[in-house]
Amino acid sequence: MKKPTSLLRKATKHPIAIGFIVLCMALPLIITRGYLLRVFIEVFFFAAMGTAWNILGGFGRQTSWASPAFFCIGAYTAMLLNTNFGTSPWVSIFIGVAIAIVLAIAIGAPTLKLRGVFFSIATISCTSIIRQLIFNFASLTGGAQGVSLKMSSGNNFWQLRFDSEVPFYYIAFIWMLIIVLITAIISKTKLGYYLRAIREDEDAAQSLGVRTHRMKLIAFIISAVLLSVTGAFYSFKIGYIDPNSVASHDLAIRIAVTAILGGMGTIWGPVLGAFICVPMLEVSNYYLSNFGGGGAGFAMYGLAMVLVVLFRPNGVISLFEGLQKRFESRKANKQTGGEAK
Amino acid sequence: MKNENKILEIKNLDKSFGGVHAINNLSFDVFEGEILGLIGPNGSGKSTCVNLITGVYVQDKGDILYQGNTLLKKQSIADRAFLGLGRTFQSPRPFLNLTVWESVYTIAMLHTKTMKQAAEKADEIIEMVGFNDIANTLCSKLPIEKRKWLDMARTLAINPKILMLDECLAGLTPIEMDDSIEFVKKINKQGVTILFIEHVMAAVSKLCTRVVVLSEGTLLSQGDPKIVMNEQEVIKAYLGEDYVNAYAEN
Questions:
Q1: How many CB pairs under 8 A join A and B?
Q2: CATH number reported for the structural domain that contains residue B62 in this entry
Q3: Cβ-defined contact of B81 to A211 (cutoff 8 Å)
Q4: B236 in a domain, yes or no?
Q5: Interface of B with A in 204-243 (CB under 8 A)
Q6: Which of A66, A211, B42, B128 is the most exposed place for a label (fewest CB within 10 A)?
């Protein structure tokens, strides 16, 4: 009897989050246009990636540009196993995760010894290396031509092939929620606290006993695993991947900007960031496609970034946090008022 | 009532940075329970000495013995914190975007088993330091004196056996200084050995039971603060040749 009420009470503490989830769950019932659903799916995937990046990038403030490396490991593993052996993505996800863990340790163990900007620069090269490897091992990876799924019709959950956008809408949404939940849990655990201490002052944290390198590495691995799984889902949604789309710096920047714009080190920040960034790119691609050879969308990214850094360094989410606080204080006032009567 | 157990033994320590010989064949002991002042002019190697003990730097030669065991080169800064070697920095290093309580809680977590114990420990330390009313304040809002205290409060969470305070009085007003001296005494009474690095001589003579004087990386003198500070060599190192006679006449 106790549990449901406490759950309910917990839920009412986050009215915005609950409202958002309910709205998203109901959305496919209202929206029937495939294009809009595709935009939402893209939003959820970027929210998922931004949130995964946020674990190390936001909580630990270690700016990694290696996210596409893990994303494309997941994507390529799932696609290649499926096109060559017909392996279900539900199986190859785990193989991708295993490879991502090994790669994360190989990349993270040496680079995370570096501080700040030097770590960032080192991670830039990782994405480049992976992209070059994909180009060079063309017989295995398809090289610059990429990999595409065979055409099929009918719904097959095991093979993740659907005729409509709706199933992928829910897969992307639920996966995003899972990552958000994982982040929320991490932020309450020891790891979350240690990462924050590292963010604030790595030297001081170390002198007080925080094993900074190990903590950063753990966060890096968790982030890599989540990105790899996202890559697998994403590639099956799109049905086609090539090195320039999944192992590019553009993607690294889009992932990081999603989190930075929304709010680094917050739980819902990257989700909000994705809701701003993805539609912004879509709109500018539509209306501004004649300017700057199609690069106008990324110029918008830059502009949004500059504005946020100047006026809202804690991200757009800081606007909403004020709202939430006001809501809570008003509720607290009401409660105390009620008791007084 | 001095305890004669050596908690820290510095033996023939040597450290160079390029052409600068920062620590030159330095040896001294720290006894359990004492407040040892580590003094010397700027650049005499005091901070380097602390950095060597805590593992920030690795010595070129010599040994550091802690509770009778040699500190190994592979023992990292964090490892040494777990052994009970606590330190603060010359300028405070607060976790700016965490609250006072969270800062202590984060560190307490490392050194207790459960998060509940950590919370209890954090409460205890906050209570002891007298931070009750600012427990939920962000560290970035604290004035310099409180930041220095917070640094010390945080180190208390690692259950230090020896606490190295690097110029914890610099930049404070005389009243704040007196409060801080009382605070250091309070920590010492709990059985924590203090290695007190300081420029403010009045505070050193008030607080320390013994001093070690460094000059250009070597040991110049050690012993009772009042006696040591009147030695000609020490005055010369601190104030220069000309002052030796002027000071001696007084």
A1: 70
A2: 3.40.50.300
A3: no
A4: yes
A5: none
A6: B42
How many domains, in total, are found in chain A?
1
Picking from B54, B80, B102, B110 by the largest number of A CB atoms within 10 A of its own CB, the best residue to mutate is B110
User: Would you say A39 and A278 are in contact if contact means Cβ atoms under 8 Å apart?
Assistant: yes
- The minimal CB distance from A209 to the residues B89, B115, B158 is found for B158
Q: Looking at residue B243, what is its pLDDT?
A: 63
- Within an 8 Å CB–CB cutoff, is residue A113 touching chain B? no
Domain containing A74: what range? 37-140+154-334
- Judged by CB atoms closer than 8 Å, whether chains meet at A190 and B109 is answered as yes
Q: Give burial (CB, 10 Å; 0-12/13-18/19+) of A4.
A: exposed
A323 assigned to some structural domain: yes
- Tell me whether B76 touches chain A (CB under 8 Å): yes
Token pair listed for B56:
């920030």
| Residue B151 maps to a domain | no
**Rounded CA gap, B141 and B132, in Å?**
15
Asked if B112 has any chain A CB less than 8 Å from its own CB, the reply is: no
Measured from the Cβ of residue B111, the count of other Cβ atoms closer than 10 Å reads: 18
**Residue B153 lies inside a defined structural domain of this protein:** no
CB B199 within 8 A of CB B39: yes
Which residues 131-150 of A have a C-beta within 8 angstroms of B? none
Domain containing B103: what range?
95-141
Find which of A193, A194, A203 to mutate to test the B interface (most B CBs within 10 Å of its CB): A193
CATH of the domain at A327: 1.10.3470
Q: Are strands B6-17 and B35-39 parallel, antiparallel or unpaired?
A: unpaired
Count of C-beta atoms within a 10 Å radius of residue A341: 4
Q: Does A212 touch chain B (CB under 8 A)?
A: yes
User: Strand pairing partners for B196?
Assistant: B37, B165
Q: What is the mean pLDDT of residues A315-341?
A: 68
CB contact (8 A) between residue A201 and residue B98: no
Distance (Å) from the C-alpha of residue A214 to the closest C-alpha of chain B? Answer: 11
For A146-178, the pLDDT digits (tens) are 999 887 778 888 888 888 889 999 999 999 999
Q: Is residue A46 part of a domain?
A: yes
Average pLDDT, chain B: 89
- Which chain B residue lies closest to A191 (C-alpha atoms)? B106
The CA–CA distances, whole Å, from A277 to A28, A60, B142 equal 21, 23, 37
Q: What share of chain A is helix, strand, coil (3-state, %, to 5)?
A: 80, 0, 20
Domain check: are B88 and B102 in the same one?
no
Length of chain B: 250
Do residue B166 and residue B59 come from a single domain? yes
ipTM, two decimals: 0.89
Residue B149 belongs to some domain of the structure: no
